[in-house]
Amino acid sequence: MKRRVTGALLAMGLLGALALWGCRPPQPSDAHAAPQIGVADEPAAETVREPAVAGAFYPGDPDELRATVREMLEEAEAAELPGPVIGLMAPHAGYVYSGSIAAAAYAQLRGADYDTVIIIGPSHRWPTQGIALPASDVWRTPLGEVPVDRELCAALAEASDRFHRSAQAHGTEHCLEVQLPFLQMVLDDFAIVPLVMHDFSEENCSAAADAIVQVAADRSVLLVASTDMSHYPAYEDANRVDRAMLEAIASFDAEAVRERDAELMAEGMANLSCTLCGLGPVAVVMEAARRLGADSAVVIDYANSGDSPMGEKGQCVGYGAAAFCAREGREDTEAAARDEGPPRQTAEAGELNAEQQRRLLALARETVEAVTAGEAPPEPPADDPAFQPQRAVFVTLNKQGRLRGCIGSLQARQPLGEAVISSAASAATEDPRFMPVTAAEVDELEIEISVLSPLRTVDDPEEIMVGEHGVIVSQGRRRGVFLPQVAPEQGWDREEMLAHLCAEKAGLPPDAWQKGATLQVFTAQVFSEAVLRGAEGER
């Protein structure tokens, strides 16, 4: 997505710099402090929480702010989401740095309706214990007032004694305030539950998620995790760290996010202060969203401060947008599939017709021909809207019935046309199991493309449907994947497939899927040159 910064935001450059560097993540010495249970509420001294960072993190003039947010929302693209949004992850730096990424998150709410938005962020300046509720009844921004859902706040305090009112924790905190103008521009008639936390321990996050699920189960609630990403590494390092964290977030597994954070922090990267200043809020929202019906995570957009005209490449802060979604009609679809027998391999959304399949297969073949001849790959097609949304793709090369190369991505990071080109080139030249394909071999290859749906975690292996679901198993740092077509091709049932997946692809014990390993599934629309030739011959 092309990054634009309005003149109004450029004029805020100096203040914007403060809005970048003012984001201090919880430090290792205090971020995991033992939680203080039963913290007493502060006296309810305020009724209205006035804006603390208007004019610094975002324009303070109402008309200027409205125009700025509207422009960023209009430029944001609609992502291909599998269903309704239960939760979002959005950044909280100054708009000159992260506004376009925040807009990308909130643009996904067009046409949605929520009664209450629970916004959870890190306490940057006040080492609050437990989870801090607001002491106010109303939050004000230059765009107007937003009521606090006092009933839901009271329900959270009743559900867990880790929740307590604190005017001090919210007084100068920016991470929630900067979300409000976007919400005010995309939603009507909503209330908020603003929460900040400083203790990111699993115990505190689990307690927060439990309470949120308990009080929000029968309500129309949106969850928002406010967080920036890597803090202060150089530009290329920031990109690498943030992409790795976004991949973990896209797995929709809060434990995997914590593990990836620990791995990256253990590397000792220069100037890396944290991978997510809101690691705790992200974990809470992911877990609560999953239990409230979300079954997939979609990464929407990414940039870092080095991409901004006001930023510098030497020290960067990363910004990511993600949505946690429920897939519409999943229960009915899966029940019907069980009744009707073996399901077909198909993508759940954006299915490609025969002509589009032929074009992508031809694009993959042209790519393989070019890279094996030492030439540049072709340009992606721009004339078909079906090729523009970001999709996860695998390209498989077979020679005389045997695998010759297979490379792809489990996460949607490129438009479909670009993803086919990059996967085809990598399958031909970078699959570590094989020597690179030579130009003399190209005519002997059969090409197959798999276009994947978003991933979702399954709690019960019985949910896995052989022939429809591709499966990912992960435990610790080990991970393996089978595409949907693998089990039918091998004649495996569910248990055999999972045993082979654990042992052969992930290097785990064959029964790891029964002993705590995480299982994720996806569907795929699979099409090949051989199948299309057969279909054309039948006509």
Please give the structural blueprint.
Blueprint lengths: L6 H4 L2 H9 L6 H4 L16 E2 L12 H14 L9 E6 L4 H12 L9 E7 L8 E3 L4 E4 L2 E4 L2 H10 L3 E3 L1 H5 L8 H7 L4 E7 L4 H15 L4 E6 L8 H16 L3 H13 L12 H13 L4 E9 L13 E8 L4 H11 L13 H19 L17 E10 L2 E7 L5 E2 H14 L15 E8 L3 E3 L11 E6 L2 E5 L3 H5 L3 H12 L12 E5 L1 E5 H10 L1
Parallel strand pairs: 1-5, 2-9, 3-8, 3-9, 4-7
Antiparallel strand pairs: 2-11, 4-8, 5-6, 10-11, 12-13, 12-14, 12-15, 15-20, 16-19, 17-18, 17-19
What's this, in brief?
By secondary structure, the protein is α+β, with helices and mostly antiparallel strands. The chain has helices spanning 7-10, 13-21, 28-31, 62-75, 95-106, 150-159, 167-171, 180-186, 202-216, 235-250, 254-266, 279-291, 330-340, 354-372, 416-429, 486-490, 494-505, 529-538, and strands at 48-49, 85-90, 116-122, 131-133, 138-141, 144-147, 163-165, 191-197, 221-226, 296-304, 318-325, 390-399, 402-408, 414-415, 445-452, 456-458, 470-475, 478-482, 518-522, 524-528.
How would you describe what is shown here?
With 539 residues, the protein is an alpha+beta fold. Helices cover 36% and strands 20% of the residues. The chain is built from 18 helices and 20 strands. The protein has helices at residues 7-10, 13-21, 28-31, 62-75, 95-106, 150-159, 167-171, 180-186, 202-216, 235-250, 254-266, 279-291, 330-340, 354-372, 416-429, 486-490, 494-505, 529-538; strands spanning 48-49, 85-90, 116-122, 131-133, 138-141, 144-147, 163-165, 191-197, 221-226, 296-304, 318-325, 390-399, 402-408, 414-415, 445-452, 456-458, 470-475, 478-482, 518-522, 524-528. An eight-stranded mixed beta sheet has the order 7-4-8-3-9-2-11-10, sandwiched between helices. Strands 12, 13, 14, 15 and 20 form a five-stranded antiparallel beta sheet that branches. It has a four-stranded antiparallel beta sheet with strand order 16-19-17-18, with helices on one face. It is globular and about 75 Å long. The chain starts with 6 loop residues before the first helix and ends with a helix.
